[in-house]
Amino acid sequence: MFEPRLALASLSGESDADWAAAGADWAGAAFLGGICLDEPSRRAAEEMVDARDRDEFLPDDPFEFIDTELAALSDAPIRTGFNVRSTTPEPIARAGKICAAHDSIIEVNAHCRQAELCSVGCGETLLANTDRLVTAVRSAAETNAVVSVKVRAEVPGVDLPVTAKRVAAAGADVLHVDAMDSERVIAEIGAAVGTSLFVIANNGIRDRETAFEYLRYGADAVSVGRPSDRPTVLEAVSTAVETWFQEQPV
Prior knowledge:
- By secondary structure, the protein is α/β, with parallel strands linked by helices.
- It has a single domain (6-247), classed as Aldolase class I (TIM Barrel).
- Helices cover 45% and strands 18% of the residues.
- The protein is built from eleven helices and eight strands.
- α4 packs parallel to α7 (130-141) and α8 packs across α9 (185-193).
């Protein structure tokens, strides 16, 4: 999928082409975004900017933005992806076609927990409604793009191993898991899906010890979020994953 098996995880309003290029010396992949694609999700993002003083990507044309940002990384030595939010599957399919044209990954966001996004049916709300999530994944997969699904552990009523099996059947290639404080869920997902999904583990990864913890549970790769602009962290984690897979080839 990518080497080294360290990904940069999207940070809304910060994860653009310049950010990805800056991490390319250490990471094998970068998920840009997240970006809201349709009017309900964009209105929710605007509310978060106003109420929370958050940074969000709110270009006039989100699809042109995706295309431009991915094009800027066409020669960068890093696998690109774009994390997207939408209340309906059609915009996800449109974004998927753009990602496919750039040989990039489209990542369906079923992860965000901000009340504004959840109130319109994005983020965790999508994760909690597996039928809607499967429809979104299927729409993305039909574009022939590589499809990732970003999810969060510890969402009430959500059985992640079961959800993982369903999104894999719908055409997902990657499951990007914010494990919260439930690192063992990585092993549970692996037991459920085998090799049908490439599992990226996220949350609290800062150094060799924290990277190895997830890799011992069977993660295929790890990702770094908030410290993704800190070269010392990226270098430590990149070295850790390369060491791990050199010593335990797969």
